[in-house]
Amino acid sequence: MNYSSAVSIYDAAIVGAGPAGTIAARDLARAGARVAMIDGSHPREKSCGGGVTARALELLGREAPCPDGCAIRSATFETDGNRAHVTISSADALMVFPRASFDAALLRQAVAAGADLVAARARAIDRSDGSWTIDSTSGPLRARWLLGADGPSGIVRKRVFRPFDRDQLSIAAGAFVDGVVSSEVVVRFVDDPRGYLWSFPRPDHLAVGTCAQATETSTAALHHVTDRWLRTYGPAADRPRRRYAWPIPSLSAQALDREKPGGANWMLLGDAAGLVDPITREGIFFAMRSGTLAASALRGHDPARVYAASIRDEVHAELRRATELKAAFFRPRFTRLLIEALNQSAAIRAVMIDLIAGRQAYAGLKRRLLGTLEFGLMMKLVRSQRHRLVEADQA
Ligand SMILES: Cc1cc2nc3c(=O)[nH]c(=O)nc-3n(C[C@H](O)[C@H](O)[C@H](O)COP(=O)(O)OP(=O)(O)OC[C@H]3O[C@@H](n4cnc5c(N)ncnc54)[C@H](O)[C@@H]3O)c2cc1C
Predict the structure, then answer these.
(1) Is 78's pLDDT higher than 90?
(2) Which of 146, 198, 281, 311 for mutating ligand 1's site (highest number of atoms within 8 Å of CB)?
């Protein structure tokens, strides 16, 4: 892309200024591009746990401090009747932020780099004469490139590709519980619907929620699971709650293969591209990473092809490994054995902390677990996953 400040249209218009859009805007503006981010929602909280892994914090960089984070020092994993407690000594393995603060820090970075924020909602997208016209609530805007970073239900994906089918989505439903302070994460594996509940501490409230595949549950059922757990969790039991529910892309391997991350002068980023780990539902890192990959591709030759290839080679490859483990991961037999292994082995606890931090990819997981020399525990875990850990390791 040849950046020229003399042109009357933007080099790139990015619809959505969440983690994906702001990182792309930041990196493009730093490279000298004229960039517009279209998003009228800030400042805003987003329905999200706000768990930000070490690998995502690295992409944020040191120059954009976000003051409202809680460093997580311990995690409790539980099922009905089983529980394991894991101490986290590294201060930056996992931070939890209110998304209002985290996304505001990213937005400040992008604007400081020179990107324009158009505080409006995009409502129609048209293409003619080799450029895009984005009609928003503050008027039309033209750009050579269109980047869709507007979440799982966004307008760009529908315009350039197709909406997600229901079987490619999870639902997460829960509540922000005000006035509860903690430094502990709780993860509870749930059998019905198959998924998990999380409690993430923020400076003055907890973000609690339950997620499961959309075709296997309903928002009401997930709220029921969250509410039932909150009644048993002492510090939260009588506190005021603000409820939320929101879809999360959770693609199968086949659905990933059908994805198209980029085409003629357009790219899809983050949730709009379905880039979420289908087991953990971690999406912030993948959104930010897609932003850096998009900006990098736009600096070179044949950007859409290069971007699509890098998403497939790097991000889809990792998400595909997660899809291979997913079916067996939430089986009661596996989660019970996992908790047993966490209770018995410091080495396996260390692997779990690296998984939480995003420092241990699914590739190499089996090799690393076997390297703990906890053969008895490991063989039980591997057998309960049948061949899936092996397949993920070889992929
Ligand atoms: C309940 C829940 C809990 C989660 N917990 C975690 C977690 O703990 N850790 C983690 O890593 N991931 C988590 N995720 C996933 C994570 O929230 C997403 O993957 C991540 O926010 C994706 O970033 P994004 O920039 O692609 O999209 P988003 O963060 O959704 O940002 C999209 C932006 O686009 C804007 N927008 C949408 N439509 C338009 C339009 N027409 N015009 C202008 N702007 C528009 C929106 O206002 C928004 O600001 C969770 C998701 C949910 C639902």
Answers:
(1) yes
(2) 281
